[in-house]
Amino acid sequence: MVQDFKKLQIWQESFDLGIDIYKSVIPNLPKEELMV
């Protein structure tokens, strides 16, 4: 269970990082579209 949680946490962190990069690369998109 702990391993699964760590994997999920790593996935979540990398996902958040990807969103930050996506926002910085494409700043012209409205935030509503990014929330989908």
Topology, element by element:
Elements: H1 2-25, H2 31-34
Distance between the termini: 29 Å
Mean pLDDT: 81
State the low-pLDDT regions, or none.
none
- Estimate percent helicity: over 70%
The figure for the number of domains is 1
User: Main sheet, how many strands, which sense, barrel?
Assistant: none
- Tell how many strands the DSSP assignment holds: 0
Overall morphology: elongated
* Oligomeric composition of the shown chains: single chain
Strand content: under 5%
Q: Could you say which structural class the secondary elements and strand pairing correspond to?
A: mainly alpha
Q: How many whole angstroms does the radius of gyration measure?
A: 13 Å
Order of helices and strands: HH
Tally of helical runs: 2
Architecture overview:
The chain is an all-alpha fold and 36 residues long. The chain has one domain (2-34). The chain contains 2 helices and no strands. The chain is elongated and about 40 Å long. The N and C termini lie far apart (29 Å). The model has no long low-confidence stretch (mean pLDDT 81).
